[in-house]
Amino acid sequence: MARPRLVSDDAILDATRQVLAELGPTKLTLAAVGARVGLAPPTLMQRFGNKRGLLLASAARSPLMVLRAVEEAEARNTSPLATLRDFALSAVAHIKHRQELGNGLGFVQLDVADAEFRQHALAHSAAIVDSCARLYRAAQEAGELRPHADVPALARHTLVCFNGALQVWAVNGWGSLTEFLTEQLDLVIAPYLAQE
To answer: Which part of the chain is the HTH tetR-type domain (predicted)?
Structure first.
């Protein structure tokens, strides 16, 4: 009979995300992740194979994390637009330093150069775009957005705004990330707001 796992895969993948923010994918090691959760590198190798397998597991989990974050934001809000803002801001609330974003951008290199990582990156983007589109349609039904707004285009534009704001803030550090992202999202959404 197999021994029960004392540390869940989710806990390991949470630790992986933390170490990625601190070190980036190049400097991340199984030892660094293992030290965070109290497991030896051979144990991580048994579960994930190697560093690449661990990083792929982390990437594969990211679309599910998007959907979970949207559900949590919906539970905290009644307005679809407030839900969208809450989701976007809660996704970056843990980021305190520009270096964390810089380290995360190292993952983009994997997303571009490696087909397996790109597949997960596309699923992550699709989860964001689909969630935004659903919230924008709900905002139209609630009278928050103009009825003829191009929801698919607005949802894609929101993804561009979100990713662009993160990269711009990582370089420039204008104010807090949440303030900067809020400002950018409001500028994107403003032309589509229903007239009061």
So the answer is: 6-66
Give me the residues paired with residue 145 across strands.
Answer: 193
**C-alpha of 46 from chain center:** 27
DSSP result, 60-71: HHHHHHHHHHHH
Mapping DSSP to helix (H, G, I), strand (E, B) and coil, where does residue 107 land?
Answer: helix
Maximum pairwise Cα distance, the chain: 65
Domain boundaries, the chain: 55-192
Against a cut of 0.85, is the pTM above it?
A: yes
Number of H helices, E strands in the chain: 9, 0
Higher pLDDT, 21 or 48: 48
**In 3-state terms, the chain is what percent helix, strand and coil (to 5)?**
80, 0, 20
Does the domain at 55-192 match CATH 3.90.650.10? Answer given as no
Residues near 100 by beta carbon (within 8 Å), at least 6 away in sequence = 21, 22
